[in-house]
Amino acid sequence: MTLNSIGLDTKKTKDLADELNQLLANFQLYYQNLRGIHWNIKGRMFFDLHEKFEELYTDANLKVDEIAERILTLGATPLHTFEDYTKAARVPVGKNISKDEKAVELIVNSLSELLKIERSILEASDEANDEGTNSMMSDFITQQEKTVWMMKAWLGETV
């Protein structure tokens, strides 16, 4: 086993970086979805949702940066083109969504996909003894589970 300068197995960190790049691509699409619904939302819930969507896309933008920096910390290169993002993304694309329920459903569906990827990374980072990635995934998961719960509550649904 070969260790890198931060004490992690180089093979395992390469695999983690690949998974983090997949997460990065999906987060970028999620971010763009949030920008779109922020811009296009209409109706009686406009003011509340416009503000909430801005809060969410600001948070997503910060997470994109954290993910990219973690990929660099692991010695890899973050994806950085829309072509790469669309090839790797599993998050649904939300185009021209202006209705409140459709926008919130898009967020729930997107976060559900992100959570699947994050849980996979969490498991792999645990096996690689990579506490940095593990901690980041744990924090993301905790925050996003709460957002899913809140969005589902807004929809009148349970988790």
Automatic annotation (TrEMBL):
Q: Which domain of life is it from?
A: Bacteria
**Which residue spans adopt a coiled-coil conformation according to this UniProt entry?**
none
From the UniProt annotation, give the residues forming the signal peptide: none
InterPro entries documented for this protein: DPS_DNA-bd, DPS_DNA-bd_CS, Ferritin-like, Ferritin-like_SF, Ferritin_DPS_dom
SUPFAM superfamilies linked to this entry: Ferritin-like
- Pfam families from the entry? Ferritin (PF00210)
Q: Where is the Ferritin/DPS domain?
A: 18-157
Family affiliation:
Belongs to the Dps family.
Q: What is this protein's name?
A: DNA starvation/stationary phase protection protein
